[in-house]
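Onboarding guide, step 5: your first structure request.
Type a short instruction followed by the sequence, for example:

Predict the 3D structure of this protein.
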Amino acid sequence: MRQEFSSGSDFNRETHRSKFPQSLKEQAREESGMICADCGIQIRSKDQAQSHHRLCQCQGGAGNRVNLVILCGEDLNDCHEKWDKKALEEGIIFPNIPINECPPELVGNRNKFQKTIRRFNLD
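The system replies with structure tokens like these:
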């Protein structure tokens, strides 16, 4: 049984997302050259550069640098929203890795991660 994603009232983006420390976001933006890791577009402002957990924290993802990618936001191609949906609907994490093949360094909460694997019937 797959977890359903809805952009309607039952999905709250703010509670779904947790924040990376500002210093980690700055490091990621600098290392990425402000280029979206998915579509490759040049991101011109910090507001358009979205910090994204490769493995969502609600699925057990860590708050470390290796689990952080910079994606463009809604003012551009909205790759951030696309990858939120893929993670929650399909169990696919950035960049197109089935969640059950997730690298261990992305996992911060093993219990949440195992529940996610079971939710997608991947154990």
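Each response can be followed by summary notes, for example: Helices lie at 13-16, 22-32, 79-90, 110-119.
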